[in-house]
Amino acid sequence: MVTRSVLLGCGSALPRTVVTNDALVARGVETSHEWIVQRTGIAQRYIADGDEKTSDLATSAARAALAQAGVDVGVVDLVIVATTTPDNVFPSTAARVQGNLGITRGFAFDVQAVCSGFVYALTMADNFIRLGQAQTALVIGAETLSRLLDWSDRTTCVLFGDGAGAVVLQSAQGAGTVADRGLLSTHLHADGSQYDHLFVDGGVGSTGTFGFLRMDGREVFRHAVTRLSEVVDEALAANGLTAEAVDWLVPHQANRRIIEGLAKKLHLPEERVVMTIAQHANTSAASIPLALATAIGDGRIQKGQLILMNAMGGGFTWGAALVRV
Question: Is 197 a catalytic residue?
Fold first, then answer.
């Protein structure tokens, strides 16, 4: 028998305000609805109002995940928040969420791996559970990325949105085969030599300001296509599986063309790929759990199915996770 981290529930939270492509044009962004949809697949995004913090979205998503899982908050002994946009430099946003939920046991911390953050956080929670250092974990991806956008830069400001998604993981015993429920494997990578292709041009330790998001879109796209394909192959090979075994691909929601290319490589029909980019845009660390919560909530993803998640973000960081729900 082996210890597995079983995904018991998933929840999401979105800001109050929806901003369509046409609304961006009305605000003075030099673009069009047609151009954005053609290049990215994005039709709208949610933007946090001034009184909506990352921790607020994370807390709401966590409560929804706990409710779906039927798990009492009192048994949670680990909270990890993946975010690029914490409420404060310190303490961690995870500590704020822990306090909001009334959790007084266990431990809490943030993970910063940008768009790969949720896969990184999922991996860390799984490791703690398998080592016996935690029994029940909340893993949250939450972002208010709109606060890092330069609204005069049409190459970036149209791409991103705000939101949060959360999952509940709990320790359970499995047979050690790919038929087990829970996380089967996770695979993480980073290449710091690509640091300057996707970054924020400021920070506490450099400029003393928060800065704006900057991106070399061509290079990011090129690396994403290669790295995401590689890490998918790695995950499948590690478990002795082929793409035919995958019931659902739940990828990072960065660009529709990247997702479609990956699905084509895996020979997965579009109806087995979860895409929420049209509604949510790129929500960085929140994008995978938001998409997962959407597909579980509407009944597409069923208990016992095999889910493949993958993401790439600034750093560059990238990773994948295979989980049987």
Answer: no
Structure tokens given for 91: 């303490």
Average pLDDT, the chain: 97
Q: DSSP label at 147?
A: G
Q: Are residues 11 and 34 in the same domain?
A: yes
Residue 302 DSSP one-character state: -
Looking at the fold, whether 233 and 92 belong to one and the same domain comes out as no
Instruction: Please write the tens of the pLDDT for every residue from 53-91.
Output: 999 999 999 999 999 999 999 999 999 999 999 999 999
Q: Are residues 299 and 200 in the same domain?
A: yes
Contacts of 182 (CB under 8 A, 6+ apart): 4, 5, 6, 7, 172, 174, 323, 324
Q: Please give the residue range of the domain that contains residue 101.
A: 2-174
Q: Structurally, how many domains does the chain consist of?
A: 2
List the catalytic residue out of 10, 157, 197, 282: 282
Q: Which of 197, 252, 255, 310 is catalytic?
A: 252
Instruction: Decide if 288 contacts 116 (C-beta within 8 A).
Output: no
Over residues 86-118, the pLDDT tens digits come to: 999 999 999 999 999 999 999 999 999 999 999
C-alpha angle 36-40-41 in degrees, rounded to nearest 5? 90
